[in-house]
Design goal:
single chain; 169 residues; mainly alpha; Rna Polymerase Sigma Factor, Chain: A; Arc Repressor Mutant, subunit A; 2 domains; 0% strand
Length: 169
């Protein structure tokens, strides 16, 4: 049974932060974020009748949102390969030690991660436990632990490189 339009919109409004944060994390441009958000909301609407209430609603929304984004990225990657586009380089401009600059740097560092690693780290930052992340992403808890260690190492390394480059400029 499909939810009423009003209850669905209320659910989206209540959990819009989850959807928005994931869109911003995976897509640097507003237009792409908007498209991803629309795809997620459509998928949530289609999938809502299958929600069995075995997990929290927010967890289910995370899972549907992540799966929608990862599928979208996979399709976009295949399309980009077919068109043989060259590598895309984003430049990062950071001034000195303001809160916004720190957020910009964190966002840039997260953007450099592979899509599944982004999902792992965002769930970690949201406070999910390894077991919960494993279930959401269809991985094992030990795989989550290994990925988290590798992600931390990669982020530290990239942070060191960026801050070193800032000091030189």
């Amino acid at each position: 049974m499909q939810p009423s339009k009003a209850s669905f919109l209320e659910m989206i409004q209540e959990h819009q932060g989850i959807i928005t944060n994931l869109c911003v994390l995976y897509y640097p441009y507003f237009e792409d974020q908007r498209d991803a958000r629309q795809d997620i909301i459509l998928q949530l609407w289609k999938s809502f009748p299958s929600f069995r209430g075995e997990s929290k609603l927010s967890t289910w929304i995370y899972k549907v949102s992540l799966n929608t984004i990862l599928s979208k990225i996979k399709k976009e990657s295949k399309a980009a390969l077919t068109e043989t586009l060259g590598p895309q380089h984003n430049s990062l401009v950071i001034s000195h030690n303001s809160y916004d600059d720190d957020l910009q740097l964190l966002n840039h560092l997260l953007q450099s991660l592979k899509p599944l690693d982004k999902a792992v780290i965002i769930l970690y930052l949201e406070g999910y436990k390894n077991k919960e992340m494993a279930k959401l992403l269809s991985l094992t808890p030990s795989n989550i632990s290994t990925r988290l260690n590798r992600i931390r190492t990669q982020l530290k390394s990239n942070f060191t490189i960026y801050t070193h480059e800032l000091k030189r400029s």
